[in-house]
Each structure stands twice: as structure tokens, then as C-alpha cells.
Amino acid sequence: METFKISELAKEFDITTRSIRFYEDVGLLQPERKGNTRVYQRRDKIRLKLILRGKRLGFSLAEIRELFELYDTHQSTIQLTKMLAIIDSKQAVLQRQLEDINVVMNELRLAKDRCQQALNNNGQ
Q1: Dihedral angle sign, alpha carbons of residues 65, 54, 40, 14
Q2: Whole domain around residue 42: which residue ranges?
Q3: Count of domains for the chain
Q4: Do the domain assignments include residue 26?
Q5: What confidence score (pLDDT) does residue 28 get?
Q6: What is the arithmetic mean of pLDDT over 61-70?
Q7: What confidence tens digit (pLDDT) does each residue in 78-115 have?
Q8: Widest CA span of the chain, in angstroms?
Q9: What number is the average pLDDT over the span 55-70?
């Protein structure tokens, strides 16, 4: 079975070992111990990838923990309903952000065009 050292995971995901230990401290990762050495399994590596992806998408660590619990407890109706609520909330936030980004991108495009026109007019 493939195992990983904390330094290997830190390098692969471009994060600090301190971050990985923090995720362990809050219960999101549970590596085995061999003496003072942490030994991470494939499951830990996948969870770390999901933690980082969730954070990028704006999920809190509490929400990520809920997702892991949902997976670990084989998806009860209450948990699935809660998960749907989290997904709906995140989708709404991301949709608003996307709309804001589109507005700003359009404003930047217009400003760029005006600057380019001004440069062209000054060069004549």
C-alpha cells in the first residue's frame, strides 16, 4: 500500500507541513503514527486534495468536515438534505461572484478601449 510523508504531501500540493498538521489537529486528516513520524495513506492524500479544493471554492473547514462526515457515514437523508443546502448556498455565492466578475471585466474592457483610443489620438 502506498504511503506518504508529510513533506511529500506538502511538496505535491505546494502547501506547508504546518497546514497539513493543522488539518490533522482539526480532525480532517488522520494519519497513522510510527513513532513520531506521520504516515499518510492514499485516503489522506485524497482528503487533502478535497480540503484544498473546497477552500478554493469558498467552503469553510466546518463545511468540509460535514462533507467528510456525510461520506464516512454512508449518506443519511438528513445529511444529504444538509449537503444540498450547502451546495445551493455555495452556488448562489459563486453565481453572484461570477456576475460581479463579468461586470468588472466589461468595465475594464471599456477603460482599456478608451485608453487605447486616447493613445491613438495623441499619436496623430
Answers
A1: negative
A2: 1-60
A3: 1
A4: yes
A5: 94
A6: 84
A7: 777 877 888 898 899 889 999 999 999 999 999 999 99
A8: 76
A9: 85
Is the separation of the CB atoms in 10 and 45 below 8 Å?
no
* Burial class for 65, CB neighbours closer than 10 Å (0-12, 13-18, 19+): middle
Q: How far apart are CA 28 and CA 119, in angstroms?
A: 55
* Mean pLDDT in residue range 1-22: 94
**Three-class secondary structure assignment of 42-107:** HHHHHHHHHHHHHHHCCCCHHHHHHHHHHHHCCCCHHHHHHHHHHHHHHHHHHHHHHHHHHHHHHH
Taking the whole predicted model, whether its pTM rises above 0.85 is answered as: no
Would you say residue 86 lies in a domain? no
Asked if residue 28 belongs to a domain, the reply is yes
The reply to whether 25 falls in a domain is: yes
Q: Which residues, 6 or more positions from 39, have their beta carbon under 8 angstroms from its beta carbon? A: 3, 4, 5, 31, 32, 33
Alpha carbon 30 to chain centroid, angstroms:
19
**pLDDT tier for residue 124 given thresholds of 50, 70 and 90:** low
Looking up residue 43, the CATH number of its domain turns out to be 1.10.1660.10
